[in-house]
Amino acid sequence: MALGLFRVCLVVVTAIINHPLLFPRENATVPENEEEIIRKMQVLEEKLHLEQLRLEEEVAQLAAEKEALERVAEEAQQQNESRSAWDLWSTLCMILFLVIEVWRQDHQDGLSPECLGGDEDELPGQDGAPLRGIILPNKATLDHFYERCIRGATADAARTREFVEGFVDDLLEALRSLCNRDRDMEVEDFIGVDSMYENWQVDKPLLCHLFVPFIPPEPYHFHPELWCSSRSVPLNRQGYGQIKVVRADEDTLGCICGKTKLGEDLLCLLHGKNNLAQPISEVEDPLCARGSPYLDTMQVMRWFQVALTKAWHRIAHKYEFDLAFGQLDTPGSLKIRFRSGKFMPFNLIPVIQCDDSDLYFVSHLPREPSGETPASSTDWLLSFAVYERHFLRMTSKALPEGACHLTCLQIASFLLSKQRRLTGPSGLGNYHLKTALLHLLLSRRSTDWKAGQLDARLRELLCFLEKSLLEKKLHHFFIGNRKVPETLGLPEAVRKAEPLNLFRPFVLQRSLYRETVDSFYEMLKNAPALISEYSLHIPSDHANLPPKAVVL
């Protein structure tokens, strides 16, 4: 009974213990939610996988972008390095070029004792020998040639100058007597220039070149404007200038009464109330271009030709010869015709003085084949003829007695003149020969011009011309040449200007250049035979010839 009761109690206790309401089982729903949990875990796993893929893709993109940026930076660095290297190389090349150019200029200005043309580029077919290997005559032959063909032929140069100067004095005095000082230009005394007054004239007949300065009537005056005073000037106007005609009562010194309104209670003490400066365009200026305040070369030429004609008619009865114009396009080219049939030419060139210097603006010059015409009729060529004469005179005083510099120039001029008669004119003129000689005189010692070195100096002069022709460059002696002595009084603006290349036409005109070079070498080829032919016979009155001329 007790055992049975114990069993019943044990069953009851067991039932009570196992009853869910008394001790609920926490994991009782696990079997029911297991599938849902697994499904959620799978979804979460998929999301995590997708997120991982997205992150991996973003990391890959960031890596690619980083690699691209590194590549661009590397390329930019390489470009900068190459650019820096290129800039450095360009700078070095430019510096080297400038050093070579400066050295070449110094070498050209210094002039080595040997011929200057041997180291430069030669024409096609040349072996580099200066003057194409042509051997010029020796000093004895050159001396005979000079005595026979030049010294005797120019012995009457002094008498010719004296006759022409006396006649021109009378002619200009007659011209002044016919001019109205209130309306006409006033002519000043003439100035002798060029070969006849520098004693290297060779060609016959002897030809005098005379500058005739003129000034305007009152109240006008001339205001020269050099080409180098402007910052930008075309190449064809370098060496030219313009001459502005202004009134004395104009605002040239800074008066502003003609530029602004002074008001009713203000009065200009220079011009007064009713005498204000008139604009230049409203004034009837003498010999100016139409609608321009600048002097016109064509009108000046016509005025000068008419004035000379009237002056000659005034004094023609006093002379037993006729006076005629030599060239229609050169108003001052005159020719005296004697009854015997002989004639004596000379040139009167109207010029205008540039301020207080010895520079002169010329309306025209004897034509050179390579000469360029001015771009406008208001462009006036600047002449350094007076400075050239002064320089030759100053240099001659420092040279040994009987120096050969003018003899070299005369022989070269003679050869050029004969060659022109054979093959016609070329681009090489006497002014180029003279310019080359001036450069040599400035660069060489005075002892190098002794009479005994005539053959060496003549060869050097021709070599200098050959070198200049091959380079197509012959600088003007005064313009931009700071080695010219300051004692000459050359204007500072001209000294500091850019050098002017006299052979610039050869750069633009290839046919003219070829003709000039061919003519030059033909002259060199004919020189030995020509000099020898004229040197065969020495005149019997050789001892009675006047001494060699010196620069006056």
From TrEMBL:
One Gene Ontology molecular-function label: protein kinase inhibitor activity
Residues covered by the Mab-21-like HhH/H2TH-like domain: 425-480
Protein name: Inositol 1,4,5-trisphosphate receptor-interacting protein
Keywords: Cell membrane, Coiled coil, Glycoprotein, Membrane, Nucleus, Receptor, Signal, Transmembrane, Transmembrane helix
Topological type in the membrane: Single-pass type I membrane protein
Gene Ontology cellular-component terms listed: nuclear outer membrane; plasma membrane
Keyword Cell cycle: no
Protein's cellular compartments: Cell membrane; Nucleus outer membrane
Signal peptide range: 1-15
Species of provenance: Myotis brandtii (Brandt's bat)
Source taxonomy: Eukaryota, Metazoa, Chordata, Craniata, Vertebrata
Function in brief: Enhances Ca(2+)-mediated inhibition of inositol 1,4,5-triphosphate receptor (ITPR) Ca(2+) release.
rRNA processing recorded as keyword: no
Family in the record: Belongs to the ITPRIP family.
